[in-house]
Structure formats: C-alpha cells, structure tokens
Amino acid sequence: MKLSAWAYTPERHWHLSLFMEKNATLKLTEQYDTIRCEGDWTLDGIEQLEREKFSFRGLSFFDKKTQTSKPTASAVTIEGSAIQAMDTAGALLLFRSKKALEKVGQSVILQGFKAHHTDLLQIVANNSHPQNAPPKPPFFLERLGRWTCQGLNQITDFLAFVGETFIVLLHSIISPSHIRWKTLFANLYSDGVTALPIVGLLTFLTGIVLTFQGGSQLSTYGANIFIVDLVGITMLREMAPLLTAIIVAGRSGSAYTAQIGTMHLTEEIDALRTLGIAPMELLVLPKLLALMVLMPLLCAYADIVGIFGSMIIASLSFNVSMGDYLARFPESVSLTNYLIGIGKAPVFAAAIVLVGCYQGFQVKEGGADVVGKQVTISVVQSIFLVIVVDALFSVLFSLLGIGLI
C-alpha cells in the first residue's frame, strides 16, 4: 500500500490525485478453473509480483516436483472485474502469463474485464505479435552477400560518376567558355600555394630518414657515395609523388567531400540546378583541372626539398659533400625516374578529386555526423586508390621494361 500521484479513469484521462494504491494480487479457486485478479495492475502495483518472478506456473496449475500440469477443467477463466486500474505494464504481464498457460495446453478465457481494460489488453496483444519481434541477425553468408552487392553497386555508381565527369571535361575542352576560371584559380591557391609548407616539411624529413637508414648500411661497406643513388631514385620515382598525393588526399580531398556534402544538406545543390548551373561544371571540373595542374608542380617541389634534406645529412654524417652529391646525382639518377614520378602525379590528382567529390555527392540527408562519416570514407578510399594506382604503375613499368636507371 502506497501513495500514488496519477490514476487512470474509465474515461481514459490521466488526472492528478492522491489515493491508496493496492498491489496486484491473484486468487485461485479450489477447482483450479478460475483465477481472480484484484488490485492495481499498474507499473507500481505489479512490483511485488515482478520481484517474485510471477507466472501462473506457481499458482497450482503445475506440480512443482514433477513440473507437470495438474488435472483441471477444460478451460481456465481469468476473472478481472476486481481490477481497479491497469496500465500497459500490468496488461503485458497478464498477457504473457495467459500465453504461458496456452503454451502448455490450457484453454484460457478472459471474463469480467472492464471495456477499457479489454481494449488495453488487445493493444498489448497486437503489439506483441511475433511479426513485430526484432529480426534475427543475418547469417554470415547473407551478410557477405549484402556487402558484396553493396560494394558492386558503389563501384558501378563511382564509374558512372567518373564517366560523367570526363564527358563534362571533354565538353569544357571543346568549349573553354564553360570553364569557371575564377573558381579554378581559387582552387589553385587553396590546394597548391597553401599546401607548400606541409608538403615541403614532410618530404624534407623523408629525405633525412632515407639518408640515415640507407647511409648507415652503406657506410659499413665504405659505399657512402651510393646514398645519392638510393635516395635520388627512391625520392624522385616513388616517395615524392606518393607522399604528395597522400598529403593532398587528406588535406584537399576531405575538403571537397565536406564542401559538397554540406551543400547537399543545405539544398544548395538543388538551388544550383534550379538556376540552370550544372553542379559538375561548378564544383567538380575546376577542382579536377586545378589539382591535375598542381600535382606535378607539388611533386617537383617535393623532389627538390627531399633531395636537399638528403644532401644535408649526407654531408654532416656520411662525409658526402654537397659538391660530390650534386656531381654524382645526374650520373646515377636518370631523367626517366624524374619523368615517371611527375607522370604519376596527374593520375593521382584525378583519383583524389573523383573520390572526394563522389563521396560529397553521396551525402543525401542527416547532419554533421553524416558529413564527417563521408569525409572519413573519402580520405581512406583516396589514399587506398592512390596506392593501388601506384602499384599498377610499378607493374606496368616492369612489364614495359622501364628500369630504374
């Protein structure tokens, strides 16, 4: 018995009141054919029954020793005329207990319940149907099939986006007046000039690391001068273009996705189409052209800074003067290595722009978390695609017999 502040009236309105709440109770007739429900079958009223882990199994219908049903009438009647109040918690407990009796072969009849209590039991029964139960987790092969289909659909959509982009590019080359020159030059500055410090710093440190690691091994054989060969070929052919592409993917590729994704959420993309402005021409093409021009320049800049860092460490730690370094460099590092590195850069740029813009257009609805998710996917996929393309270049050059010198 305790005070409660809310009651449910037959008129189905909640109102504030003070009354003495009576716990829900059950009484079983001697013939085992009728269960009388009394008290308040509410969240607070059934607390005692819940603590006792109530079920009709404990009432007398089942022998506790043999766990079998005792002889009883063909039908069990649940009498609810003495129920004072009922909410969904009490109705759910009553419904589950009724189902427990039916599961072991008892026929159950509900009798004497007030109309609004009957309606509440019916609502609980409808919403407790097995079809509303949470679905079982899919089998592993089913999940694998779904992931495969989703992956294939994404690849198909991405290839369609690539095709559309290059159609727009071809059209713009034929008609240069369609190129947004102002946007293009803005991208040249934001993606190129402002990227010089970070690209220079990382390639400078990479040149230092390569010289230390390679020089420490070469010096044991008195072959310090071959540091020039090792660092020069590695830096010009692989490290400079790859590092530059990874930095640009993390820096500019993520910005492309965030910009286009945010414009999607704020419906600016739809506004552009309404004004007759093609989003591909305004948002994708200037970025593609700008980065394809910038990447070879950034790559050449990275070559210079990386070699300069190598020269400093070779001079200070391995007795290879800058004069000797510069004299050895054109002899050991051919122009082919430089051109290979520079030639990869525009392809890396195209991969970064296409992935970044494509993921931006995939932001359909949601909030900032959706944009953040697509930015993460964009950066990961851009770097992955850059490394895959670099590996394909290596295989291609090997098949074509393009050597290291």
Main β-sheet, spatial strand arrangement:
3-4-5-6
Computed CA radius of gyration, to the nearest angstrom: 38 Å
**pLDDT < 50 runs, ≥5 residues:** 1-20, 57-69
Mean pLDDT: 81
Coarse shape: elongated
Strand content: 5-15%
Instruction: Give the tally of β-strands.
Output: 6
Distance between the termini: 94 Å
Count of individual domains: 2
How much helix, percentage-wise, in residues?
A: 55-70%
Largest sheet: 4 strands, mixed
Oligomer: single chain
* Helix-strand pattern: EEEEHEHEHHHHHHHHHH
Tell me the structural class: alpha/beta
Number of helices: 12
Explain this structure:
The structure is a single chain. With 405 residues, this protein is an alpha/beta fold. It folds into two domains: 2-132, STAS domain (Transcription Regulator spoIIAA, 2-Layer Sandwich); 144-400, no CATH class. It has twelve helices and six strands. It has helices at 47-51, 88-103, 115-127, 140-174, 181-191, 196-218, 227-265, 268-274, 279-317, 322-332, 335-361, 368-400, and strands at 2-8, 14-21, 25-28, 34-41, 75-86, 107-111. A four-stranded mixed β-sheet has the order 3-4-5-6, covered by helices on one side. It has a two-stranded antiparallel ribbon with strand order 1-2. A hairpin with a 5-residue loop joins strand 1 and strand 2 (14-21). Helix 9 packs across helix 11. The longest helix is centred in the middle third of the chain and has 39 residues, at 227-265. The radius of gyration is 38 Å and the shape is elongated. It starts with a strand and ends in a 5-residue tail after the last helix.
